[in-house]
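WARN  no MSA supplied for this record, continuing single-sequence
INFO  ligand: 9G3
INFO  echoing inputs
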Amino acid sequence: MRMSRMYLKTLREVPAEAEIPSHVWLLRAGMIRKLVSGVYGFMPLGKRSLQKIEAIIRDEMNKKGAQEILMSALQPAELWEESGRWYAYGPELFRLKDRHERDFCLGPTHEEIFTDIVRNEVDSYRQLPLNLYQIQTKYRDEKRPRFGLMRSREFIMKDAYSFDRDWEGLDLSYQQMYETYAAIFTRCGLEFRAVEADNGAIGGTGSHEFCALSEFGESEIVYCDNCGLASTREQAAAVDQPAPPEEALPLEKVYTPGTKTIAEVAGFLGVPESRTMKALLFQVYDQDYDYAAVFIRGDRELNMTKLVNLLNIPEHAIEFADETAIGEATGAVGGFTGPIGLHDCRIIADSELIKSPNLVAGACEIDHHIKNVNYGRDYKADLTADLKLISAGDPCPDCVGKVKLTRGIEVDQVFKLGTKYSESMHAYFKDENMQEHPLVMGCYGIGVSRTLAAVVEQHHDDDGIIWPLAVAPYHAIITLISPQDPIQSELAEQLYQRLAEAGVEVLLDDREERPGVKFKDADLIGIPIRLTVGRTAADGVVEFRLRAEGQSVEKAWAEAAGQVIDMVKAIDK
Ligand code: 9G3
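INFO  complex generated
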């Protein structure tokens, strides 16, 4: 493609709404354009990279015997009523009516649609296992779309649905898709971790998130380089590290004026924070108790997911209580609450805390704490469990390593759906004895447009994008310094033809622009290989430079061409 003909508008300035690198660079490189909040269009360069990612997905899915179909984005409400989800989703579901006042939604996902197709046409075990997928536009009316393609209201997803005769079959399908995803993200040049994830609203059991590591990711990832553990932070077990046992010393109430925080009381008494006890008070709804006090070591943070799971209550049934407001009912005293003197309140203690001797706790009295509080002798809990939020450097729960924390972009999700949809929608098959059984399903999504953004998050520098060769919009760019110089333009044309004939996707920057602008644009759009035709054209010499490495070397043009052709042939080998 000649850049003098190409539809491309690069931006020198960072658009105001762009907060993270991928959003900045995709806009500045002219790859995407915003239509309205959370809705983006793909311009020529962006569309080409999107197609590269889709081609990798198709190749890997087809290798595993999955079959591509394409279902509609327009979904009749009836199917969602059958699955029971029509009323389960709120404003996030784009709903509309047709001219006959019939209810529809724009599909945020396609469990119902795929189950409907299969229930009408699969009725025998001989047709199983089956894996159908599509690459299709999804619609979710996100409350706060942001970060460009990362959280948009319309996005491209590859969603696959597997149908098996039993759970063993599902496990096999799941394993197949897991391997497929690892291959896809590796070929796209993404560094990722597969982490156990919470099942969330969709139900089913055992789901994973593949997270592309990025400091701007929305998921907090805990990982161990030693054993390969990877988990979302709220899911990660934390290892108890109690102080060594010691004799329980006598209780001692001390005057600790104005020391409301852990740091203040630890500082005032000259003890480490790990020798103090933190109290967190909660108001609880729809349970047979109103208040709960959670006690955890002063140097730890509470993991709310673990607390909610322990109490087996929904997240909205618990909220932080105002200690002063509940003082009357429970004896709590803001900033000085401890287990001794607390009443009419569920006492919940972290597993590590109860093994830690002689701690400083609030005295339930203003400006006073109590030293040497010991579990068992001085207080008991109604419930104890690991409630800690794991932190970087903590021991790995699975090995002797230390965990690290990073953030991840959830580029996909896979769920074992089981019979959730096949039962509610009567998708059954007959076995060898003509016995009817519900199909056992799994679903497997990849955020295609989100993957594009994740690649940019992981592959950029201060000058722009650094595309991995396999997903670059073009493999190479020929920067022609002086198009009006016949020697230079002749050589550039020769090089251009040679590469194009060999199947290299090559851009020829033949614009009447200053060299500096051409170099800046080449770096900004991130084409992996740059060949500069300039002063040395008379000797048949060009400058060869890899975007990812930065330094340039001079080569005879045919040799440079050969090297580019070899690099392109080596993609995905
Ligand atoms: C909705 C709306 C938003 C949603 C869903 C339904 C997420 C919904 C979960 C999934 C699960 C899997 C197939 C591909 C892989 C992920 N957001 N989910 O079901 F109505 Cl508004 O989509 N689906």
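The chain has three domains: 45-236+405-457, 252-385, 474-569.
INFO  checksum written, moving to next record
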